[in-house]
Amino acid sequence: MTSDPKLRRTVTEVHHYLLGQLNSAIRRPGAFGGEQTLRLYLDALTFVDNREQDWHQELAALRDRGASVSTGVTGAVHHALGAKAEDVMASVFAEIAHRNAWLLLDRSLQRAEHDHIRRTVDAWCSRNQTLSGTLAEFGPPSIVIGSNNPLYPKTLGYGTTHPDQPLIFLHFWNGTEPGAASTWPPDHPEPLLLAARHPGDRFIDEFVFTPTGAHRRQQLGATT
User: Fold this and answer.
1) Terminus-to-terminus CA distance in the chain, angstroms?
2) Quick one: which H or E segment has residue 18?
3) DSSP assignment, residue 69?
4) 186 close to 176: Cβ distance less than 8 angstroms
5) What is residue 69's predicted lDDT score, i.e. its pLDDT?
6) With helix as H, strand as E and coil as C, how does 103-160 read?
7) What does the longest C-alpha to C-alpha distance in the chain come to?
8) In angstroms, rounded to a whole number, what is the distance separating the alpha carbons of residues 166 and 100?
9) pLDDT at 223
10) Burial (Cβ within 10 Å: 0-12, 13-18, ≥19) of residue 220
11) What's the gap between Cα 176 and its chain centre?
């Protein structure tokens, strides 16, 4: 191996590499090592960009609103939903990346599209909804977090390129009922909407549960 300084990566190259890795890890948290990996990539990226103070403030804000507990964001999600959900956990870090212009969107919504979803998503959650029905209603998302398998749980995020316009998340679940043995295929022909999530004073207040989501949360004994 050579140590020739002329052959070392530039700061710009390191930034682009970390940016790509962060965005891949947000989309597929299970394949990249979960929350710890997301924290490490964000920590490294803020160091390269000389923005460590911003990162520390983001972490403090997570704790203050209950989005991170002694077991991290993963634990806060578990409290809120009654079960672990890596796609929901990763969506919290996607928010941070978006606020800091580090999230690379697959589709950027026009402001009018984004405003429409913000106005109507709570009413959409008043009834049970499916993944296909939600896509038909709101269109292709800005980001998909979770497996590409259409049967698996996942989170859809909708946003614009403007960091001051918050992402709107829709969290979907599929599987077996609590206490039942895991089976394949899962119980439902496609994922069901558990909740929408958009900014709130407390983490739990950010969730707007569908009837399915509220029932599942009760079954699982969510504590928040």
Assistant:
1) 53
2) helix 11-27
3) B
4) yes
5) 97
6) CCCCCCCCHHHHHHHHHHHHHHCCCCCEHHHHHHHHCCCCEEEECCCCCCCEEEEECC
7) 62
8) 11
9) 72
10) middle
11) 22
Tokens at 222, concatenated: 């969510």
Q: What is the pLDDT of residue 1?
A: 53
Which tokens is 19 given? 């940016």
Token pair for 8? 């070392």
Candidates 146, 138, 144; CA nearest to 117 is: 138
DSSP 57: H
What backbone phi and psi angles, to 5 degrees, belong to 160? -110, 180
Q: What is the 3-state secondary structure (H, E, C) of 86-109?
A: HHHHHHHHHHHHHHCCCCCCCCCC
Task: State the pLDDT at residue 10.
Answer: 93
Which residue bears the tokens 């969506």? 91
Nearest to 205 by CA among 61, 35, 63, 67: 67
CB neighbourhood size of 133 (10 A): 15
What are the tokens at 29?
């948290």
- 68's tokens: 């991170």
Tell me which long-range contacts 22-28 makes (C-beta under 8 A, separation of at least 24): 22/97, 22/102, 23/97, 23/102, 23/103, 23/104, 25/90, 26/90, 26/93, 26/94, 26/97, 26/103, 26/143, 26/145, 27/90, 27/143, 27/144, 27/145, 27/146, 28/146, 28/147
Q: Map residue 62 onto helix, strand or coil.
A: helix
Q: Pull the structure tokens for residue 45.
A: 């990226």
Which of 84, 73, 77 is CA-nearest to residue 38?
A: 73
Of the candidates 30, 85, 34, the one whose C-alpha atom is nearest the C-alpha of residue 207 is 85
Which residues of the chain are under the pLDDT cut of 70?
A: 1-3, 6, 224
Beta 192-197 vs 168-173: how paired, if at all? antiparallel
pTM (2 d.p.): 0.93
